Amino acid sequence: MKQSKCPICQSNDIDILISEAPDHVTGHLFQILSCQSCKFCFTDPIPDHMEIYYPDKYRAYGPFTAGIMKIFYRHRVRKWTRMIGRPGNVLEVGCGSGLMLEAFKRRGWSEVGIERTESIAEQVRSTLGLNVVAGGIENIKQEPHFDLIVLYNVLEHLPQPLNILKECVLRLAADGLLIVNVQNIDSWQARFGGALWQHLDPPRHFSHFAPQSLRRALERVGFNTYNITFVSFEHDPFGWVQTTLNKIMNRPNILTRYLMGIETFNLKVFLSFLFAAIMIIPAMVLSMLSWQFKKGALMQFIATRKIKLAEQTQ
Ligand SMILES: [Zn+2]
């Protein structure tokens, strides 16, 4: 489906930011459009069917990668739960294999996850014993009872990101926190990589935010942003390595494809690992510099409900 209006502000003032961005699974090309009014960027066209863009092995991380992710997730969850200061209720939208929800449960939190399909939800229920609901957020009771709502690398997958944010504001407790982690299209890494930026990932990523556009989107539905950070050890340095490799080989995401189980081991994978070993320290330095300058490839917003302020002044 071709898009002629900005999904966030409905403006018709749309420019082409990137004319040919390749999908690393199918090789199909997509445009990245940019709204001149609110600076939100989005993938065009939106495919009618997404199945071919998510092969069976997509995100079938091996035990090694999953083990590393688990360490990073536990670290993030520890920081988030400390902000609340006591065990509470958490909702994770798009909880995937449940690694993050499991970290919450270990800290005594009452967890609810949402996953699109019943088969994935049932798998997480049976393997990790977590409370996971299949389908959309409308299947979660509409009352403001969650102390934390987490959208961890989820918003970019939605063509209409405002819709989920509107539902979240209705379910967040008055003193609760919304946590949104998403890629930053205004980052140094995005500008360096252009069409071959690893985290651009069209068409699985429809929505491409910059700090300014995400802040506006949150405010539009009733959130106040009070904290923005750019630190992401698990995604940012690897993004520099993979994006640089993409530009050298002019072929997207060989290492990512291998780690996801889409590509088998071959000479290019071997050479990519060799390059990654050389590049990892400079990539770490570049990432840390970009965090200092608020130009990191991933950003984390923490927001509260605007209504909280109204309630406090009553
Ligand atoms: Zn707009």
Please give the share of residues in helix.
25-40%
H/E order of the elements? EEEHEHEHEEHEHEHEHHHEH
Sheet with the most strands? 7 strands, mixed
Could you tell me the number of beta strands? 11
State the low-pLDDT regions, or none: none
Structural class: alpha/beta
Name the overall outline: globular
Number of helices: 10
Strand line-up of the largest beta sheet:
6-5-4-7-8-11-10
State the oligomer.
Answer: single chain
* Attached small molecules: zinc ion
Determine Rg (CA atoms, Å). 19 Å
Taking all residues together, what is the mean pLDDT? 91
**In whole angstroms, how far apart are the ends?**
47 Å
Strand content: 15-25%
Describe it for me?
- The chain is α/β, with parallel strands linked by helices and 314 residues long.
- 39% of the residues lie in helices and 22% in strands.
- The protein contains ten helices and eleven strands.
- The protein has helices at 63-84, 99-106, 118-128, 161-171, 188-193, 211-221, 236-249, 254-259, 267-292, 307-313, and strands at 14-22, 29-35, 41-44, 89-93, 110-115, 132-134, 146-152, 172-183, 207-208, 223-229, 298-305.
- Strands 6-5-4-7-8-11-10 form a seven-stranded mixed beta sheet, with helices on both faces.
- Strand 5 (110-115), helix 3 (118-128) and strand 6 (132-134) form a beta-alpha-beta unit.
- Helix 1 crosses helix 2 (99-106).
- The longest helix has 26 residues, at 267-292.
- It starts with 13 loop residues before the first strand and ends with a helix.
- The relative contact order is 0.14.
- The model has no long low-confidence stretch (mean pLDDT 91).
- Zinc ion is lined by residues 6, 8-9, 11, 35, 37-38, 40.
- Zinc ion binds next to loops.
- This is Methyltransferase type 12.
- Keywords: Membrane, Transmembrane, Transmembrane helix.
- The chain crosses the membrane at residues 269-291.
